[in-house]
Write a structure and sequence with these properties.
The structure is a single chain. The chain is α+β, with helices and mostly antiparallel strands. The protein has two domains: 95 residues, Pseudouridine synthase; 132 residues, Pseudouridine synthase, CATH 3.30.2350.10. The protein is 25% helix and 34% strand. It contains seven helices and 15 strands. Strands 1, 2, 3, 4, 7, 10, 11, 12, 13, 14 and 15 form an eleven-stranded mixed beta sheet that branches.
Length: 243
């Protein structure tokens, strides 16, 4: 279908399953161009090296951003013990490697317990947070490190799914503003061996599940596919009023 007109009647929320290796901004901007709408915005950045649920608000629904950005999120992730990188994930440079033969599942469980509930987390330098108009990751790439203030977050669930060959598979339910990479880094510090993220996947934001999301690669085939998946603005208002 040739897209040469404005879809004024399709303001709402679109669930996208973001693949690995692309930024949240690029996906949001592509949806804007495909639908030829005035505004789009996402509700919570996913790292380029993460996959999973991305909520995209379309047109007048973008004014609901603050209501969606504060919702709890659920992730599955894998941490490699014994490795520390400057980005807290495998995209960065390795800073240290430590033997972890003395780390067992009981030590990991004990360490995780200290990271549940209300805690304070220092955001990573490799993040999209801004300092004097510059994104932190832009400064980090120039070798500049800025002091970051700890921020209060809430870890509501932090479960071990498996532990094999120095890799922990975990499931985490957390408040908005939580950095999973920083959580892995903190866990590694508590264990005394360091840790870095191998993978991150966002499974849910509040009631919205990645299982119901449109695969990003499907958006290139037909604009009608996108339109059918949009949760209309009026439905969103009714849902928010019932919260």
């Amino acid at each position: 279908m040739e897209n040469n007109f404005l879809y004024n009647n399709f303001s709402g929320l679109l669930l996208i399953d973001k693949p690995y290796g692309i930024t949240s901004f690029k996906i949001t901007n592509k949806i804007k161009k495909i639908l030829n709408v005035k505004k789009t915005g996402h509700c919570g950045t996913l790292d380029p090296n993460a996959s999973g649920l991305l909520l995209i608000l379309i047109d007048k629904a973008t004014k609901l951003h603050d209501k969606f950005i504060k919702k709890d999120k659920i992730y599955t992730s894998s941490f490699i013990l014994g490795i520390v990188t400057n980005t807290y994930d495998l995209s960065g440079n390795i800073i240290s490697k430590i033997d972890v033969t003395n780390i067992n599942i009981n030590k990991i469980k004990t360490a995780i317990e200290t990271l549940k509930g209300k805690i304070y987390q220092v955001p990573p330098m490799y993040s999209a947070l801004k300092y004097k108009g510059k994104k932190l990751y832009e400064l980090a790439r120039k070798g500049i490190e800025i002091e970051r203030k700890p921020r209060e977050i809430i870890i509501k669930q932090f479960d071990i799914l498996s532990y094999k060959e120095n890799v922990i598979e975990v499931k985490i339910k957390c408040s908005s503003g939580t950095y999973i990479r920083a959580l892995a880094y903190d866990l590694g510090n508590i264990l005394g061996c360091g840790a870095t993220v191998k993978s991150i996947r966002r499974e849910k934001i509040d009631i919205f599940d990645v299982k119901n999301a449109l695969k990003f690669e499907h958006t290139k085939y037909d604009v009608d596919i996108i339109i059918k998946k949009i949760i209309r603005y009026e439905e969103l208002i009714k849902w928010l009023e019932g919260q």
